[in-house]
Amino acid sequence: MRHRTSRDIRTANRYEVLRQIIAQSPTSRQELAAATGLSLATVATLVGELLDLRMITEVGFEDSAGGRPRGLVAVNASGGALIGVDIAETYVRVELFDLGLNVLARADEDMRPGESRPEQVVGHVAAAVGSVVTQAGVEGARVLGVGVSVPGQVDRDTGVAEYAPNWDWHDVPLLDMLAEHIAYPLYLDNPLRACAVAEQWFGAARGRGDAVVVNLGTGVGAGLVLGGGLHRGVSNSAGEWGHTTLVLDGRLCHCGNHGCVETYVGAPGIMLNLRELSPKSTLLHPEDQTATIDALARGVAERDPVALKVVRDTARYLGAGIADLVNLFNPQVIVLSSWVAAALGEPLLTEVREAVARHALRRPFAATEIVLSPIPTDPVCLGAATFALEGALSSIGGQRPTRRTARSRD
Amino acid sequence: MRHRTSRDIRTANRYEVLRQIIAQSPTSRQELAAATGLSLATVATLVGELLDLRMITEVGFEDSAGGRPRGLVAVNASGGALIGVDIAETYVRVELFDLGLNVLARADEDMRPGESRPEQVVGHVAAAVGSVVTQAGVEGARVLGVGVSVPGQVDRDTGVAEYAPNWDWHDVPLLDMLAEHIAYPLYLDNPLRACAVAEQWFGAARGRGDAVVVNLGTGVGAGLVLGGGLHRGVSNSAGEWGHTTLVLDGRLCHCGNHGCVETYVGAPGIMLNLRELSPKSTLLHPEDQTATIDALARGVAERDPVALKVVRDTARYLGAGIADLVNLFNPQVIVLSSWVAAALGEPLLTEVREAVARHALRRPFAATEIVLSPIPTDPVCLGAATFALEGALSSIGGQRPTRRTARSRD
DNA sequence: AGGGGTTAGGAAAGGGGGTTTACAAAGTCC
DNA sequence: GGACTTTGTAAACCCCCTTTCCTAACCCCT
């Protein structure tokens, strides 16, 4: 249990100020102070730091009520680039962002079922990272860092993928291997936490002390934002909500247990819900999760009774599971994220809200918002890039206090 | 989302030092520095503060390896008194502690089923508090504070019991009402968090950053110690684990939901497990939870097959539920607390460990210890008193720096 | 008995951090 | 052009922790 130091306070405040600037660009120091609750002096110092780092720039002035005009600052989009890497079971996706977190370039690499050796995956990642840097035409020096998300349990400090169930990896020194191909600072974590941090910085969890980001994809999990920070647990594997028991002695899960949430609301689980209801439905595309979920979404839009029923059943399971999260964590907001949530959208959300209302305790439920993720792009890449951003912001504390040298503002 | 300030660091360190002193009295500054990871200078300042407050005293010297002997400090048991109040459905229990957290006096007041009005409860509390102060013969001035635990949802800042399901209280200004009868500083919270804080200070969660305290009584809940602090949630109702769904469409719970954990592993749930297995068992004492649980415990000790089976069944439910906690929180330790856990003891623990092993993910499970609470007395009273202790320690930050006046050591 | 070695603990200096206060800068209004 | 307003920086201050220096207190050895 490491001690909290005053430096942590500084880092947290730096995060908060930059978050706020990214969220609302351009903005004034006054507004930042009001939004963050910090004093004007502190905001001014932090803004000065960020200006020195060229992460933001002064962009003009705003009339004040009869006095000196407010100076405005905005993200300096071209002040650097961040790269997010989403390693999944069947593909590697890499996105390059500017500092406004806009996607400048993207590269996808498909991985064949056989390609599961770490060396092969590392090769794909290196190729894709090289590709986005070339595409975006940024000089390498401007890349502030590369965040890598890999499913499973990782040690973010040593950069080791301790356990990745997809490929049966054990203690793969992924970051060291990548470092041989990639010269930028590297950061490792898993998709659950990537999505959580993306919501915390840019999504529905912004400014919320306690939030749970529910990830609905092929697998299912929850990213926990508690007390303003990511909760990681003692071995960095907190948030394994997908293997929570929802139905005692229920469906068999690949984890060996029965009745896991994932077997009912993960994409394969939803397919099973559909198959059990209507084995011959045309909505069902065996062997293709994405197609099936998309077909369901279209079906719901067209008021197809089978699709409606499947979504309702799924929402019922999901609602019971989310109600548990509401009761346990009493968060301000629960965010539904990842591709299944994005595909099924509002209809799912509505049903889920009703189901949660039935299962959760009244008062905690009343305190909790349930929303869809407002993030339009791949949240895993964005979150991974955010790890790189956080890394860049933390490391500046380490070096000397960056004495501001005569910064002219004309 | 309030900001963290440098004062919070000080308070946390103060807690840690005093915790350590209470745990191991007498002790030296050197040992404290090693145990807390703080510098010697900081430890010395904090120890000085506590000496000034008369919470600890210098008690002698210890030989060092050939140099100046180490000064030893110990809790000054008679330096003050703390009172913990445990308000439950059918009784009010009040205990008075010295600063070593030893029980000096105890008072129990039974409440008849009809007596549910706040005024009546307040009357009982006031009477019992008066009683323990008289019994212990301490001067009133030495009482540092009174911690009150009431089941349900409370607002600890305003001292309002927002919702107490036992008596259908809504927004009762409990602390204001008590303040008319009790002149000491008052602190309000609920039994879940009281047990958690008791474990954090004096029990199995000491020194652990992440711990879950599972409360097994008539009701069931979990106190969450995350990142070294209590997690309260946005409306101070985090930890309502008892109403987590364990069996979809299972037993009806008084909360209106089906299949809640509480209906299987709360005392009434265990009685139902017994009744379903063997309706005419002599172990069953209808209308008397305590007697039934005690009978079960004796039955297990005597290898009664029915008792063994009931405990095994209960442990199976409990294990599935606790496995969810292991997966979600990835804590260092899970503590089983409250009277049902104490009564069923080791046999329950053994079965629970096996059941959790079957349900939880392998790696998080390997990182988590599961233990019985080592606290021998009523953990709720102890925890409530601890709230008063924490209050006394926090408030000293507010006043002036207590300039140390010539403290002679002869 | 008196010095040298060793360890404990206090006092002062130093480096972070945040806030308050004072003041210069840059406008508006009369 | 002067008075008023508002912004933003600089300086002073308080809090916190650590490092460094020095004295206190004890041991051992001569």
Quick recap of the structure?
By secondary structure, the first copy, chain A, is an alpha/beta fold. Chain A is 43% helix and 21% strand.
Describe what this molecule looks like in 3D.
Two copies of one chain form a homodimer. Chain A is of the alpha/beta class. Chain A has three domains: 6-75, Orthogonal Bundle (Arc Repressor Mutant, subunit A); 80-195 and 379-397, Nucleotidyltransferase, domain 5 (2-Layer Sandwich); 204-372, ATPase, nucleotide binding domain (Nucleotidyltransferase, domain 5, 2-Layer Sandwich), CATH 3.30.420.40. The first copy, chain A, is built from 13 helices and 16 strands. Chain A has helices spanning 6-23, 29-36, 40-52, 118-136, 174-179, 191-202, 262-265, 267-277, 289-301, 305-329, 339-359, 362-367, 379-398; strands spanning 27-28, 56-62, 70-75, 81-87, 91-98, 103-110, 143-149, 153-155, 160-164, 169-172, 186-189, 211-216, 220-226, 229-230, 333-337, 369-372. In chain A, the strands form four sheets. A five-stranded mixed sheet of chain A has the order 6-5-4-7-11. In chain A, a hairpin with a 2-residue loop joins β13 (220-226) and β14. The radius of gyration of chain A is 22 Å and the shape is globular. Chain A starts with 5 loop residues before the first helix and ends in a 12-residue tail after the last helix. The model of chain A is unreliable at 398-410 (pLDDT under 50). Chains A and B meet through α1, β13, α10 and α12 of A and α1, β13, α10 and α12 of B. Chain A binds a DNA duplex (30 and 30 nucleotides) through residues 3, 5-7, 9-10, 13, 28-30, 38-42, 44-45, 48, 61, 63-71, 397, 401.
